[in-house]
Design brief:
Blueprint (H helix, E strand, L loop, with lengths): L8 E2 L3 E2 H18 L14 E14 L3 H4 L5 E6 L2 E14 L2 E5 L5 E5 L8 E15 L2 E4 L2 E3 L4 E5 L4 E11 L2
Antiparallel strand pairs: 1-2, 3-8, 3-12, 4-5, 4-11, 5-8, 6-7, 8-9, 9-10, 11-12
Pfam families: DUF4330
Organism: Gloeomargarita lithophora Alchichica-D10
Protein name: Pyruvate/2-oxoglutarate dehydrogenase complex,dihydrolipoamide dehydrogenase (E3) component
């Protein structure tokens, strides 16, 4: 007696294709429920320490930056479109637009840019303070390691500022 008949049935009762489909479903279920997965953590984190992050925002069109972003306010910190906690605004430095003016002696002097298109254009350096996990000598906020050059966002009640990390000080 043959194991598989002319219609492709095993023992004359079960289709080989149906048996293969059931086997695939069982393997998928075993893979989902019994095989452990990764934790999704980016870095092995250590103890929490205080951290200061300098963020630079370039070319922001804003009318009254002093009234919008204030020292002492809390703001949401977003790294690579992932919320990474809340940090306190420790310091805010606003740079008005300037142009380089060459001098007759060959030196360069910075003067205020009086062009109308730069009237509301500002660069800002925002110092943020908070606590972060420490891993491999760097700060980790919300499963993202904070490094110089990482694109970040700062979101408050009336603003969403996009910039990049300029400096990270752990234990400051």
């Amino acid at each position: 007696m043959a194991w598989i008949d002319r219609q492709g049935r095993l023992g004359g009762k079960i289709s080989v294709i149906d048996l293969a489909a059931v086997g695939v479903v069982l393997l998928v279920l075993v893979g989902i429920f019994l095989v452990p997965g990764g934790t999704g953590s980016v870095a092995q984190v250590g103890p929490s320490r205080s951290v200061e992050i300098d963020m630079i925002v370039r070319g922001l069109s804003i009318a009254r930056p002093e009234e919008l972003v204030r020292r002492g306010d809390q703001a949401s910190f977003i790294v690579r479109n992932q919320p990474s906690g809340t940090l306190k605004i420790k310091n805010l430095t606003i740079f008005p637009p300037e142009v380089e003016v060459p001098q007759p002696d060959g030196s360069v002097k910075f003067m205020a840019d009086t062009r109308s298109q730069t009237r509301f254009l500002r660069d800002m350096v925002i110092t943020l303070a908070g606590t972060a996990q420490v891993a491999d000598g760097g700060a980790v906020l919300g499963n993202s390691k904070i490094k110089v050059g990482v694109p970040v966002e700062l979101e408050g009640a009336q603003y969403n500022l996009r910039g990049s990390v300029m400096d990270v000080r752990v234990g400051a």
